[in-house]
C-alpha cells in the first residue's frame, strides 16, 4: 500500500519501544528546564514554548512515557502515532521560523482521537474492531484536517467501546477486542460511554487533549465519571465526515479535556463547514465571530437563567452507588451558582420526563436503521477494507478465531442488519423524538427563558441527544464510588453561553484533582 501502508495490530507494542528509546533522560513530570508538564493547560504549554522552557518534542516524549507506564493499567490508548516525534520536531521548527501571531493556540500540542475518527496516516481507524484493521481511508476526517491546519500533533488513537456500543448489549462499556477493557481513571471501574478512552487518556495525563464522539451520553458520561470537561456540540457544528458514526441525526464530535478553556480552544479549532458533511452548512450559522475563547469569562455566571428540574434527582436514585453524596454536592453546586450571580429557576417540570425515561420512546428504533445506513456508507467509501458492509462485519465476527472465544454476542448489530432503510416504524420513531423534544426540553427552555438546564451527572444526556442539543460536563465532586460532574445543556447554538456558565462554575469551584495513581500498582 506504499505510503498508505497501515500499521498492524501490533503497532502499539512495536513502535512504542522505539519511540521511548530516547526517554531515559526525561523525568516523568518535568522538562529539562524544570517546567511541570503534568496537568498543564494549553495556556501553560504555550507560555512554556514562548519562553523556551519546553519543546513539542519534550512534550510528546512525556506523554509517550506516560502511555508506556499507565496504558497497561487503564487501556485508554489503542495506538500511538509512529510519526509523533517527527511532527513534534516540525512544530518546534515552525515555532523558530514563523511569526508567533501566525501560530494557533493548539500549535505543537498533542491530541488523541477516538478510534472511530479517521486519519490518513500510518495509524489504523477501527472503531475498536479487528474488522477494520488494515483498512485505508480516503482522507482525514473533517475535524482531523482542521486540527492539522491548527498545528496540533495527532499523538494517537484513544480506545473506545467497540462500534460505539452498537455491537452488543452484553459487551462491557469501555471494552473492545482491540484495546481490552478501559478502566476508570479514579476507580479502575466503569469508565462510562463509548468515548471512554478519550476521557481516560486526558484524566491520567496520557495526552494533553482529546476528541470524543457522542450519539447519546458518549462524551458527557465519560467526562463526568473521569473528572474531566466534555463538550457535546450542537449536531452539525463539527463535521462527522470520516467518522464511523451511529447516526448522522445524533452524532457529534467534541473535545474532552481537563479544563473548560482547553475544551473551548479545541472546539474553536474543529468547528466549521465541511463539504463532505452537509449538516455543517446549516449549523455554521451558530459559530460566533471571534471564536469561543472570548466566552471564557470569570463572571460568566452573572445574570444567567439556569433551570433546575428536581425530578432528575429522583431518577438518580434508580442507579446504585454514591447517589446521596452526589445529590448533596449538587445542592451545594447550586448554591455556588447562585452566589456567583446566576438566577436559578427552580422546581421546574419537564412535561414528558416519564415518557422519556420509563417507556420505549423510539430512539433505538431509529438508531438501528441509521447505524446500518451510515456504516455501510462509510465502509463503501474506504479505499481498501476487509469488510464492506454491516453484513460483512457480522460474518467477520462469527469467523474470526480470536473473536469466537469472546462471550459477547452481536445482538445489536443483528437487529440493525434486519432493518431495511427508514421505513414506517423508523419514521414514526423519528417523529416521536421530535414531538418529545418540542413539547419537553424546547418548551421548558423557551417558556422559562432559560440560558441552560443544569443537572447532576449525565442524567440529561438523553434529552440533549435526541434533539441534537449541546451540553458541557464539568467536574463537580467525588464520592467513594468515584468522580461525578455537573451538566449544563442548552438549545442549538448556545455553546457561547454554555462556555460562559461552565467556565464561571469551574473557576468558582476548581474541584478537579488528578487521579490517585499512587493507589494503583504501576
TrEMBL record:
Domain annotation Amidase: ranges: 59-457
Keyword hit for tRNA processing: no
Gene3D superfamilies, per the entry: Amidase signature (AS) domain
InterPro entries, sorted: Amidase_dom, AS_sf
Position of the signal peptide: 1-32
Coiled-coil spans in chain: none
Organism, as annotated: Quillaja saponaria (Soap bark tree)
Protein name stated in the entry: Amidase
The keyword Protease appears for this protein: no
One Pfam family recorded for the sequence: Amidase
Keywords from the named record: Signal
